[in-house]
Amino acid sequence: MSFFTFGRSQWLLAPLFLGLTISSSQPALAAPVSIDTIFAASPADTTRAAALPVAAVAAPKPAPFNNPPHIHPRDANGRVTDYTVAPGVTWHYENTKAFSWAYHIPRDLGQFPKFAFQSKNKGTLLGIAAGSVALWALDQVIVDGSQRFGQFVGLKAASTQKTLVYIPFRVGSANLPFEFNAPDNLNSTFYFLGDGWTHLAVASSFWIYGGIKKDNRALRTSSQLGEAIFSTGLVVQVTKRLTGRQSPYVATQDRGEWNLFPSYSTYQHFVPNYDAFPTGHLATAMATVTVIAENYPEYRFVRPVGYSLMGLLGYSMLNNGVHWASDYPVGIALGYAFAKIAVRNGRTRVEAPVDSTMGAGTGFRVLPRPKRWYRHGQFAPYTYGPFTGASWSIRL
């Protein structure tokens, strides 16, 4: 690295009170000198170069940045547990236990009120409320416009799927079959992005990878996805059963009716009459994107890609008349909150290793941010005749 120097105390400024003076430094105009240049120079030049700081004479050139992979040391069981994702930021992930996500759900539900309604979230909560009310006023216009656009581009409004697997299962009078469907048109494909099978496939992928590679971060991500999605789903379902809002495709009036606190039998008799608010599909999609993005911050594409897919999902539900636009803000907020809670409980921040410039276990190298030019200056006291003061020198 090349350096330029400022002279030391070349000039004295006027004395300040108590006899203290401060001198400014003047930049030298000489170019950086290397070892080879010194040996080839004249004796006078050599003498001048020898007076330069050592760093100016023999400063090595920085190595090229090539993002080398850096594998974090494994623990005694051969597992990767710690990940440095930025200078000074290292997260520790414990190994998961079987079905830990399930018994973490009550904990997450208990922590939700304190997490969501803390004082620093006042602005966010007011924004969600105001946005929901504004969208509610425009709900019918938005749904009608979305469906007209779908007709214009030839996008079918119907959300139809083919049943690939069906296994009947009943609990008392409740019919709870095991059913796996696949979309059979483009709008249904967009809608399928919020299907439970989609999120189950994502969580299973992390679980399989973590098991093969003994990667605790991947295993914890899978577990956090499970608890965030199910916690979100429980709150969404309770809210649906309390608000009882009609879906657009069965609405009997503009923006749909609200039948607060419908009975269980009434709700189950014809679910679309009561389950529009809030959206469960976007809530679980938001939970999935947030958990992955929080655990893998070095992959900056996660949020842009995830939010883009959520946009397609949101449009498809307007086009097929399943949801109103005002159903979205609360659902998205619920998914985000439970994802943050799950991630917070699923990792521990530790002191960064000595070599904190390397992204541990990520194949991602983080270079330290260089100091600003004015932070390189150094003060030094001096005495010159009757004057006593300090000089400021800087080397870039």
- Structural class based on helices, strands and sheet pairing: alpha+beta
What is the number of strand segments? 12
Q: How would you sum up the global shape?
A: globular
N-to-C span = 10 Å
Count of distinct structural domains = 2
Share of helix, binned: 40-55%
Number of helices: 13
Q: Strand order, biggest sheet?
A: 1-12-11
Q: What string gives the helices and strands in order?
A: EHHHEEHHHEEEEHHHHHHHEEEEE
Sheet with most strands: 3 strands, mixed
Task: List its salient traits.
alpha+beta, 2 domains, three-stranded mixed beta sheet, 396 residues, PAP2/HPO, 12 strands
Could you walk me through the main structural features you see in this protein, from its secondary elements to its overall organization?
Keywords: Signal. Pfam families: PAP2. InterPro entries: PAP2/HPO, PAP2/HPO_sf. Residues 225-346 form the Phosphatidic acid phosphatase type 2/haloperoxidase domain. With 396 residues, the chain is α+β, with helices and mostly antiparallel strands. It has two domains: 1-43 and 50-65 and 370-396, no CATH class; 94-346. Helices cover 45% and strands 13% of the residues. The chain is built from 13 helices and twelve strands. It has helices at 35-40, 43-50, 54-58, 100-116, 122-137, 139-153, 186-192, 196-213, 216-243, 264-269, 280-295, 302-319, 328-345; strands spanning 20-23, 82-86, 89-92, 161-167, 170-171, 174-175, 178-183, 348-350, 358-359, 364-365, 378-384, 387-393. The strands form five sheets. The chain has a three-stranded mixed β-sheet, with no helix packed on it. Strands 2-3-8 form a three-stranded antiparallel β-sheet, with no helix packed on it. The chain has a two-stranded antiparallel sheet with strand order 4-7. A hairpin with a 2-residue loop joins strand 11 (378-384) and strand 12. The longest helix is centred in the middle third of the chain and has 28 residues, at 216-243. It is globular, with a radius of gyration of 32 Å. The termini are close together.
